[in-house]
Structure formats: structure tokens, C-alpha cells
Design brief:
Two copies of one chain form a homodimer.
Chain A lengths: L2 H18 L15 H13 L8 E6 L5 E6 L14 E5 L3 E2 L5 E2 L2 E8 L9 E5 L24 E2 L4 E2 L4 E5 L14 E2 L4 E2 L9 H15 L5 E7 L1 H12 L4 E7 L7 H15 L16 H16 L2 H6 L16 H13 L5 H13 L4 H19 L26 H11 L7 E7 L7 H19 L6 E6 L10 H4 L1 H11 L1
Chain lengths: 499, 499
């Protein structure tokens, strides 16, 4: 008897039995699904309501042996409503003119440092962070929490504090002490919110240079080092101040953002902006858009960490015996956890501005020349007392033409990038890429290295040997984009050797 | 003079000039950003309000020469409020017992067909669709619109209607005529919404088998053919009814869902479920969650189409002269367009259920045995008059343990999959994969083919030669996952030859 025949006859007997029941009562089996994940978010919104007195909420926690304990959770304030400390502040009262026409009349930069600056100030290394990191790269007496590069910095570590004076800053646009959208605009005494001007990666480095050059009086960095967005900044700083950088390290970054990365960041921004609590950026006195932030971070996490590692770590394991539309697979609970953890730890507007700066990153010469012109125009307009920034103009609701394709050819793009990299082409550069990275695929680091070599040959008559390119195979790292945070041996090792 | 010196002196002169101005008036340069993309969505929500009389809204459109014309836009109803036609309906009044404990007391399947069924009913090919496709694979007199596989079906085409009788169905759980969450539950006379039971891919094929076997009286399909989710179904149908399938074609699919794909679908579902208009699935009389649907589709589109093609097509081109947090890069306007187009064309609850079914897909023997047991238990409980489905139980708010890892070893998983594929191991199978696919990476099709070969050797004493594996290199296709919809030559060609 075939499978289908068994089913058929069996089903018929059951159908017969069912039809005897009154009022189709058997159908009531399909009760509405429940959504504990949404209940949780609604509760969280309630606890974050500024007008409601905060209560302690019971919270279940696992310890390492998977024992469940009930803890009292003290409702967390969003980052921009907390007192932050453990870093130093540099304030610049000179305006910062920005690549896309905006201006910061004054700004501050949060920074931390390790090791000792030598007499001739020749041993300083500036570390650039990823999108959402603070200046806290390593623990120190003023902040004993482990930093995001804790094991990479210290005596005899890849960034050796016996030899070097290491500085790390929070980027402008961020929310860990440096001026960003959550900062108070001194004119209105209100937070900037989405009145903050659009930033570029190069703007961030020009702000950093005030700290390095004006404050510390460092005329030339021993090295500029960074990963992910920091790897962009590391190159951008050198492009902006070629005379002021010795060596360059750029890890898991690119020389210009590519459509897939832009697309992934686009979805993160749109998801966040669609949270009604985002309120077009003016949420600082209301419920924070923690749902949009959580979702946005979940998408980001897929791009940071997925790869062969997830196969091994999560497989197809589920946490519930019955399926659910709430987190159900182990990998889903992981994403949920990552999203929740981040949702109040970073300022939503900072995420939008810094993420956008990454999209706009392009070391090509046209982009750089346009930016210089724009900055000079802004300065001129300000000087001429007729300033009217175009960067924040009201955009028209542009209809979309789905057939439109790029107007610049790929060849033109290549030449443009080569020209833009001219000022970096004579440096000692180390480029590191990771094969399992899907956000900044390893061909993008190969592109940086190839173009820098070309630049060295073309503009300096060199051999290109000054450009080192190091690629971690999948056999070596399965951690994807986040490898730079994790792999002390294979990322830290080459850095130590290079420096 | 170094760059920084120029900037410094220039900045100082400006600062001096600025300080003369009264009331910091220069700061007002940073006006709030505008958000036309959000304005548009709000307008759309208003036009979809069921209690508001619909008005015609002016709409800007491009023609091929980029000329702007103003058109009247007739507000679109969501798919579930439109009259749908152009397909045939098969109704089954026998209950369908489901893999995760639910039951459909009755259901219907929308289907379309092309070519002629021969006398001994031996020339039928069943085509399985991707997640969001309807049964309309090809145009015909009842529906002249081009189908989703228009050029693949017809006389002398890869699916040759001179030889074969081609049938395509809308999956149960869908919204193009087959029973799904937007269908009326005959008990309550209301739509199922999230009272609909959780489905599996195998459930879908058991529903299809009623049409093929009970309705058409086809004892054995000449072939089972599908791409993406359809490629899962193609294998699942064969696993469920091994005696009733001749040849099998599975394109851009997998034998079990992998964490990255689950993660990407997870983010799409969570984004949709976070749209307040989703209302836990009960939106049919309100404003549809078109924003959540749009965002969800944008994320999906990244996984369907990104790849080398985007580099060539969009590059870093922007559509505005000044950057914006609304769609700005060409690739963003493309995603925005794809999201908008889809947002009312598919039922949001169908998306959740069908997407979830894809996550749950696993041809491994444990999963299949568990499902069989569950179905039999449901039948027994129903027969015993004490039915209480566990599939829809109220889930407890499980705390997340971020340290938890999978409990099954990779080796156990491999053996389980091999056992599960036993009944397919003796078929003629064609597996097609695409190197530029990031959603179902080509190693997953290689896995299907390898495991099927192993099954043929182990269980049937064969050589494995019955399993054909065809992989499209990046040089051949740059379209990623969607290649199966586009590449008639390199996907259609091998199908034609194989059939």
C-alpha cells in the first residue's frame, strides 16, 4: 500500500468522525499564535516612557550552568540620558567646515590614550574605531571595563604601549562624548537631532587632526590604524594629511563603498526611521526608537558575523518544541539578543549619520575635489555673510526611475580612485582582509592594495613593495567582518610585525 | 605650507569674522533634514485607511527618455481585497494534517496548466514556485499577463508544451487563490489571520498531491521541477511520494535551511511584525502594514539580487546632489522601488507563514519522522474527540541564553540528512546552483548533489551517476539568487536537456 493510500483511507475515516461533531468544533484547534517577543517590546516601551515612574521589572537570567535565576532589572536609560565618563575631552571652538556643505561652529572630541608620548612626539599611533565603538579601546584606571580592542593594546601587544603612545577617539557624529546629533546646539540650547549636518569619513579625520595636531602638537603620527569604518578613516586621515602620517594600517575596509554594503546599511536606516518613536529624529524627550534600533542591529549583525561560524555554532537548532513567528531557531535568539543589547546603547541619530558617512565614503579624486570646493564655498559664504548651506536643503520628492543605471563607466571609476589615492601611494601600508567577510568582501581590500601599488608605481616611480596585503583564508577565520575584534593571532600578529 | 596650516589660518580668520556676528546666527545653517520618503509613506497610509473615501493622487512618472509626466494614481487595494481570477480551483474537503500539529479541515489550491495531458497521464510536470509567486507561470487566454517563467514554458521551450502537461500551483499559505491566512475560516466566517496553523514545505507538497493524485488522477509525475522555495518543494514532493515522481529538478535551493538564510528571513519577519499596522496579523479591516512589507521586501531584494551585477549597474551613483537619509544612492532608489511595488501585492501574513516554512525546511530523517508522528497524533486525538493542537500553544517568554550552542554535532546532521534523502536517491535528479547567489550559496546545491549521490551508492548500490549537478560560474551569471527567473540559456538549457 503506498503512503498516499494510507493517508487517504485514514483521512476519510477521520473526516467521517469529524462530520459527526456539531458546529465544526474541530476547527477551533487553530488558536491565534502568541507573540511574546512583541509583548516584551511593548513592556519595554512602557518602561521607557518619560512620563511614567519607573519600576523594577523581574527578569530571568541564565548563569553558565543554564540555571535560571530571577533578577531585578533596573530599567536602562538610553545612552544619551546617561552620565558618561572615563575619557578626556578636547574642545575646538574653531568651526569645522564639512564635505557636504554643513558646518559645526564648535565641537568636542572624546579620547583616551595608553602608553607615553616621547619627547619628540614621534611615537603616536591614532586608532580609528568601527561604526558604533567608543574611544574605550582598552581598560585603564579611569575606566576599568575591557575595551573593544582590549587584547590588542598593551605592553608587548600588537599595539605595544612600551613603545607607542596610542590614542583612540570617538568620531564626531557619535554619542560617546564627541559632538553628535544628541549634543546640545549652543544656539538653541536644544539637541541637534536631525538638524545635525551630514558628515563624511574625511570630516571625522579633519576633526581628529585638531586633537592630534593642535592639542597634542603631534606633527606626524607614527601610524594611523583602523578596522572596518576605522579602516576607511585610517586611509582618509592619510589622504587629508599625507605629511602627517608615517605608516598606515587598514583592516576589513574599502577605498570606496560598494552597492551591497550601501544596500545593507540602507535597510538598517530605513527600518530605524520607520519606527514611529524615531519621530524624524526628535525623540530625545520621548520613548526612544528602541524597536527600530533593535531591528537595525539584527540586520547589521547578519552582515558582521554570519559565515561558516554560524553553521557550526547554531546549525538548525531550535529553542522551542513548537515553531513560532517569534525567535525560535537558536540563530534567531542570538540576533534578538544582539539587537536588544544594542538598542539603548547607541544613539539612533548617531547610527543614521555615521552609517550614512560610510555610504558616502569614496577616496576617488572627484569626490575629494568636490568636497574641498564645497568646504571652501561654505567658508567663503560665511565670510561673505550670506551663508546658506545647500547640504540641508529641502529635498524634493524625487520619483524613482527603476531603469536608471550609473552614468560613470567602471573604467572612469578606476582612474578616479587611482588619482584619489595618490597621496597615500608612497606610505608604508598594511591592508588586511578576511575571506569570510560578507560586508566588506575581501576583493575590496585587494582593490585597496592593488590601487595603492599602482599609485606608488605611477606617481612615485616605485615598485609597489611598500604596500603589504594580507588575506585571512576561511580556514584561518570563520568570523566574517568581526574577525578584527576577535582574532588576536591572525590580525594582531601582522600588525605587530608591520609596526 | 602644509594643508593643515592653510586650514588653520583660514579658519582663524573666519572665526574672527564669525565672532562679530550677533546671536550666533551662523549656526542656523543646519536646518532640520527633510524626509520625503516618510512623507510619502504617511500619505500612502492615509489613502489606504478603510474609513476614508479614496481620492486620486497625482503621481510623477518617468518614461524611457526620463521625461516627467503627471499621472493620476488610482489607489491600490491590497491583494486580499481584490477579486483574483485567471486560475482554476481545486477544493479538498478532507482535512490536511500538518507537520507541526495544526490541521486545515478543508482547503483549496489555485492552479494553472499548459499543454495537454496524454492518455496514460504520464507526461505531467509539476512546477513549484518561489516564496511569493502565484500559479501564473505563463500567460494563457484566461490571463494574458506574462507569467513569472514566461519564456521557460511553451512549445520547444525548456518546459516543452508540445510534449508535456505543465501544472503550476499557488502554495497553501499563499494569497493567490490557495488557502492561506487571508482565507475565510468557515467556522468563524472570519479570515484566519494568525489563527492559521504553522506550515511546512512538506505540508505544501501533500496539499499539491491531492490535486495531482485525487483530482487529475495522475499516478506518477513525469517530473517535479522548482527553483528557490520551489526547489525545496521539488525535493520534498519526491521525499513524500517517492513512487509518484519520475525526474526531479531543484534549482537554487537546499536540502535544509542554513543559519544565514534563516537569519535573513528572520529580520524580514521581525521588521514586518514590528509595523504597528500589522496588529498581530489582524489588519484585514484596517490599514495594511505596507511599511513593514516594503522594508521586508527591501531586505529580501538585497539577498535576491545583489552581486557583481549591482556594481556594474548602480556603482556609487547618487540621484541627489546633496546627501539625504532618504533614498539617495541609485541602489537605494532601486530597493525603495522594489519594496513599494511589493508592499500591497502580497499578503503580509502569507509572507510570515511561507517564510517560516522555508526556515523549517529540513529533509533530514529526524525532522521527517517527528512530523509523521505529530500528524498521526493529531489524527488520533481528533479521532479520540480530545483534540488539542500543540502547534498553537501559548509560548512562554523564553529568556535568551547568548552562550547556548547547537546540541547536535555536524556529523550527526550529515548522517541524518543522508537518511532523509534515501527515497530520492534512486531518481534522476538535476541540481542547479549559481555562484553569485548569496541567499542559497552554491555550496548548498553541492550539498544536495553530494548527499543524493551518497544515498544512491549507500541505499541502492548505484554509482551516483543519476545525480547531475550544474553550477553557473560568476562569469556566466551575475544575477545572484534571481538567476532562475532571468537566465533562459543557462538555466533553461540544462533543464531542457535533462527532461
Amino acid at each position: 500500500m503506498s503512503k498516499s493510500k494510507i493517508t487517504k483511507s485514514f483521512v476519510r475515516s477521520i473526516t467521517h468522525s469529524l462530520s459527526k461533531k456539531s458546529n465544526n468544533q474541530y476547527i477551533s484547534s487553530n488558536k491565534p499564535l502568541s507573540f511574546p517577543c512583541l509583548d516584551k517590546l511593548e513592556k519595554k516601551s512602557d518602561s521607557l516612557r518619560p512620563d511614567v515612574e519607573r519600576k523594577k521589572i523581574p527578569n530571568l537570567k541564565f548563569d553558565v550552568n543554564n540555571t535560571i535565576t530571577i533578577e531585578q532589572e533596573i530599567p536602562i536609560k538610553p545612552i544619551y540620558n546617561r552620565i558618561q565618563q572615563g575619557f578626556e575631552l578636547f574642545k575646538s571652538e574653531e568651526p569645522l567646515f564639512l564635505d557636504y556643505g554643513g558646518v559645526l561652529p564648535e565641537f568636542q572630541i572624546a579620547y583616551e590614550h595608553w602608553g607615553t608620548l616621547n619627547k619628540d612626539k614621534s611615537n603616536a599611533i591614532l586608532i580609528h574605531t568601527g561604526l558604533s565603538a567608543s574611544s574605550h579601546a582598552k581598560s585603564h584606571p579611569k575606566n576599568i571595563k575591557p575595551g573593544w580592542w582590549e587584547n590588542f593594546i598593551g605592553p608587548d601587544k600588537p599595539l605595544d604601549t612600551n613603545k607607542f603612545f596610542i590614542i583612540c577617539t570617538n568620531v564626531i557624529g557619535g554619542c560617546y562624548g564627541s559632538t553628535g546629533p544628541s549634543s546640545i546646539n549652543r544656539e538653541t540650547n536644544e539637541r541637534y537631532a536631525t538638524r545635525f549636518p551630514i558628515l563624511s569619513i574625511n570630516d571625522m579625520t579633519r576633526a581628529q587632526n585638531r586633537l592630534i595636531n593642535h592639542h597634542f602638537g603631534i606633527k606626524k603620527l607614527y601610524a594611523s590604524v583602523g578596522s572596518s569604518m576605522g579602516g576607511m578613516q585610517s586611509l582618509a586621515y592619510t589622504q587629508e594629511f599625507p605629511e602627517e602620517v608615517g605608516k598606515v594600517v587598514s583592516i576589513s575596509a574599502c577605498a570606496r563603498s560598494h552597492p551591497y554594503s550601501i544596500a545593507m546599511r540602507h535597510t538598517q536606516r530605513q527600518v530605524l526611521m520607520s519606527d514611529p518613536n524615531w519621530n524624524r529624529g526628535f525623540y530625545y524627550d520621548g520613548i526612544p526608537p528602541h524597536v527600530g534600533m533593535k531591528l537595525s542591529r539584527e540586520i547589521a549583525t547578519v552582515t558582521y558575523r554570519s559565515g561558516p561560524e554560524w553553521e557550526r555554532r547554531f546549525g538548525r537548532e531550535r529553542v522551542h518544541s513548537s515553531p513560532s513567528l517569534c525567535p525560535d531557531f537558536l540563530v534567531e535568539t542570538y540576533l534578538d539578543h544582539q539587537g536588544t543589547k544594542f538598542s539603548l546603547e547607541y544613539d539612533p541619530n548617531s547610527l543614521l549619520y555615521v552609517s550614512k558617512a560610510m555610504d558616502l565614503f569614496d577616496l576617488g579624486s572627484k569626490n575629494r575635489n568636490r568636497a574641498s570646493t564645497t568646504r571652501l564655498e561654505t567658508q567663503k559664504k560665511l565670510y561673505d555673510d550670506t551663508y546658506d548651506s545647500d547640504a540641508n536643503r529641502v529635498l524634493k520628492d524625487m520619483p524613482i526611475n527603476p531603469k536608471r543605471v550609473r552614468s560613470e563607466s567602471e573604467e572612469e571609476g578606476e582612474i578616479d580612485l587611482l588619482d584619489g589615492l595618490k597621496t597615500i601611494g608612497d606610505k608604508e601600508v598594511l591592508v588586511i582582509g578576511v575571506r569570510s567577510d560578507i560586508l566588506f568582501p575581501s576583493w575590496q581590500q585587494a582593490e585597496i592594495a592593488e590601487k595603492l601599488k599602482e599609485a606608488n608605481i605611477k606617481f612615485f616611480g616605485g615598485t609597489g613593495d611598500n604596500i603589504k596585503h594580507h588575506e585571512l583564508s576561511e580556514a584561518i577565520s570563520q568570523y566574517g567582518h568581526d574577525t578584527f575584534l576577535i582574532d588576536l593571532e591572525h590580525v594582531g600578529g601582522p600588525i605587530k610585525e608591520f609596526l
